[in-house]
Specification:
The chain is mainly α. It has one domain (20-45, 73-189, 238-397): Na+/H+ antiporter like domain (Na+/H+ antiporter like fold, Up-down Bundle), CATH 1.20.1530. The chain has 16 helices and two strands. Strands 1-2 form a two-stranded antiparallel ribbon. A hairpin with an 8-residue loop joins strand 1 and strand 2 (70-72). Helix 3 crosses helix 6.
Length: 409
């Protein structure tokens, strides 16, 4: 009995509590993220819109000479601060793979298969609408899921949504993030400077050497991590990949008596959820919708391809694969989740705001195409949120006594 109690307590500390903390941070962060996006849209469509563009187009160079990193302010947010966001994603992936929901093959199989369906079908829907024209490079935009927004929407529904639904959504979104990161690394890298890439790889190797010699203090890794970011930034591979790699190298189990991953996640999750990601939204969600931009987007295959990819592709891709895998016995739904709730979760996964905006900035150099893609992201994410809420409310609605008696009769 005592051993079982200790095992349950250990499982609660290692799995349940980190998940609850994650959900709380993501729920509140989703609200802040929405507020930042609204501020950006209002600002970009106000009389002060010129100031909005001028602010984020301001060039900032750190140091002097050809090796000094230089970006505009939007670039520093996207290529610099967002490294912290992707580092936290790397930490979450590592935790889920080692001690979380994805550690057991049978449990991990369902969100993994669902996420693949939620990547392949949105891309297919996108290509079916856009074809191979100017907007074809944006095929990766509708494959992403925004965990913060999706969990924030679930939080609005309150306790009527069982924990199993939230666990499934988070698991799908994390696998989705893994795939999206791979897409960014492979398909949205223009040219590679092998020397700088080798320097970044050497930095990652140094991290492993520090671990091998038992260095548990965080500051040496922070210095090496900064050097890895610098080398990656010059390598041609997007610098945020360095954040993911460092997160995956972080030990998920106690290291020399320290819960390194948990400590880093607690310190950085709030920073990314309440500062970095909202700042990213403020810098990237400000689309000037005046002057016929909405009409232009309404007639654009790119905007429709992104919106339909998120709404139709995600819902059908995740929903169909999940239902087929569950009914065939290949994988099981999380405890407490009913099969009728699958479609609501699948629709919520179509909220692709943060990473979708990120990929849109990488996919296109033409501001017109970027704006069309962003309008599609707003439309598809908003429609997915509305559909997801509706389907989950219908799935969790309890029958009235009268309707129950009629059903029995």
């Amino acid at each position: 009995m005592l051993t079982q109690w200790r095992l349950r307590r250990q499982a609660r500390e290692v799995i349940v509590e980190p998940l609850r903390a994650f959900l709380r941070a993501e729920s509140a962060g989703g609200i802040v993220l929405l507020g930042a996006a609204v501020v950006a849209l209002v600002w970009a469509n106000s009389r002060a819109s010129g100031g909005y563009q001028a602010l984020w187009d301001t060039e900032l160079t750190l140091g002097t000479g050809p090796l000094a990193p230089s970006h505009d302010l939007r670039g520093w947010v996207n290529d610099g601060l967002m490294v912290l966001f992707f580092f936290v994603i790397g930490l979450e992936i590592k935790r889920e793979l080692v001690t979380g929901e994805l550690r057991e093959l049978r449990v991990a199989a369902l969100p993994a298969l669902a996420a693949v369906g939620g990547v392949v079908l949105p891309a297919a829907v996108f290509f079916g609408i856009v074809g191979t024209g100017d907007g074809a490079a944006g095929w990766g935009i509708p494959v992403a899921t925004d965990i913060a927004f999706a969990i924030g929407v679930l939080a609005v529904l309150g306790s009527r949504i069982p924990t199993g639904v939230k666990v499934f959504l988070v698991s799908v979104a994390i696998v989705d993030d893994i795939i999206a990161i791979g897409i960014i690394a492979v398909f949205y890298t223009d040219s590679i400077a092998l020397g700088w890439l080798g320097a970044a790889a050497a930095g990652l190797l140094l991290v492993l050497v520090l671990r091998r010699f038992g260095v548990s203090a965080i500051w040496p890794y922070a210095i090496v991590g900064l050097a890895i970011w610098y080398a990656t930034d010059f390598s041609g591979v997007h610098a945020t990949i360095a954040g993911v790699a460092l997160g995956l190298l972080t030990p998920a189990r106690p290291f020399r008596g320290r819960e390194v991953l948990d400590q880093l996640e607690r310190r950085l999750h709030g920073v990314t959820a309440f500062a970095v990601v909202p700042l990213f939204a403020l810098a990237n969600a400000g689309v000037d919708l005046r002057g016929g931009v909405l009409a232009d987007a309404a007639g654009s295959r790119l905007a429709w391809g992104v919106a339909a990819g998120l709404l139709v592709g995600k819902t059908l891709g995740i929903g169909l694969v999940t239902v087929l895998a569950h009914r065939s016995g290949v994988a099981s739904l999380p405890a407490g989740m009913a099969s009728r709730q699958v479609w609501g979760v699948a629709a919520l996964a179509g909220i692709g705001f943060t990473v979708s905006l990120f990929i849109a900035e990488l996919a296109f150099a033409d501001p017109v195409l970027v704006d069309r893609a962003k309008v599609g992201i707003f439309a598809g994410s908003g429609a997915s949120a509305a559909l997801g809420v509706t389907l989950l409310l219908l799935a969790t609605r309890r029958p009235t006594p009268a309707s129950g008696s009629r059903a029995r009769g």
